[in-house]
Amino acid sequence: MGLRTYIRENFIEDIKPYKPKHFSKPEKMLEIVSAWKGLELIIADIIDQFDLKKERCIEFGVEFGYSAVVFSNYFKNVTGVDTFEGDIHTVNKNEHFEETSRRLAPYTNIQLVKSDYKDWIATDDQRYNLAHVDIVHNYNETFECGLWAAQHSDCTIFHDTESFPEVRRAVKDLAKKTGHKLYNYPQHHGLGILVARKR
Ligand SMILES: C[S@@+](CC[C@H](N)C(=O)[O-])C[C@H]1O[C@@H](n2cnc3c(N)ncnc32)[C@H](O)[C@@H]1O
């Protein structure tokens, strides 16, 4: 392969730094520990900058519900998919679906589903305005779940692009595969933002 062909086939636009125009704290929030803390300040900004509708949001990787509750401030319906059993990267590995369902019960626009993302994406054909991927931080899972999310939403965000190189690599490859625009917000362990160009 010549150098030109190599560059054409492997070129990825540099990730653009995401620059929030305004920070705003959502009204409803959970007072629990989460590595996601801090990102709640830029969700309204992301919705504004990419002109997202606020009907439907899907989250893969709910754990105790910190980010799901943040999304519930902005979207009419939030679907949260998780095994609720933890993974190799989470501290908690105990099953907690009932407990988390009770904690999130006051947020009536959140629907929690106890499922592996693989089973969910095999049957769901709906479209979402925003998708959030924050499952086990391996390349294959992030790529597979992220590809479905990018193909079924206007904007997909990925947590831990700074703290997990495999997440960052998967997100870059997804941008290359889908042709979506890629931004990265480096704070709070990193948030990758994939935006469909034509919506
Ligand atoms: C980093 S935590 C999510 C944190 C959460 N977004 C928050 O706001 O704190 C990752 C979660 O992904 C879930 N998870 C990991 N692999 C999964 C899979 N294959 N399908 C569904 N959920 C998965 C784990 O059970 C865990 O609750």
Q: How would you portray this structure in words?
A:
By secondary structure, the protein is α/β, with parallel strands linked by helices. Helix content is 33%, strand content 21%. An 8-stranded mixed beta sheet has the order 1-7-8-6-5-2-3-4, sandwiched between helices. Helix 6 runs parallel beside helix 7. The radius of gyration is 16 Å and the shape is globular. InterPro entries: SAM-dependent_MTases_sf (IPR029063). GO terms for molecular function: methyltransferase activity.
The class by helix and strand makeup works out as alpha/beta
The third-level CATH topology is Rossmann fold
Q: Walk across the major sheet and give the strand order.
A: 1-7-8-6-5-2-3-4
Count of beta strands: 8
Biggest sheet descriptor: 8 strands, mixed
State the gist of this model.
This protein is α/β, with parallel strands linked by helices and 199 residues long. The chain has seven helices and eight strands. Helices cover 33% and strands 21% of the residues.
Record keyword descriptors for this entry.
single chain; 199 residues; alpha/beta; Rossmann fold; eight-stranded mixed beta sheet; 33% helix; 21% strand; globular; binds S-adenosylmethionine
Helix-strand layout with pairing:
Layout lengths: L2 H8 L5 E2 L25 H7 L6 E5 L5 H7 L4 E6 L14 H8 L5 E5 L2 H7 L4 E6 L5 H14 E7 L5 H14 L2 E5 L5 E5 L4
Parallel strand pairs: 1-7, 2-3, 2-5, 3-4, 5-6
Antiparallel strand pairs: 6-8, 7-8
Helix pairs in contact: 6-7
The structure holds S-adenosylmethionine (SAM).
The site of S-adenosylmethionine has 22 residues, from helix 3 and strand 3.
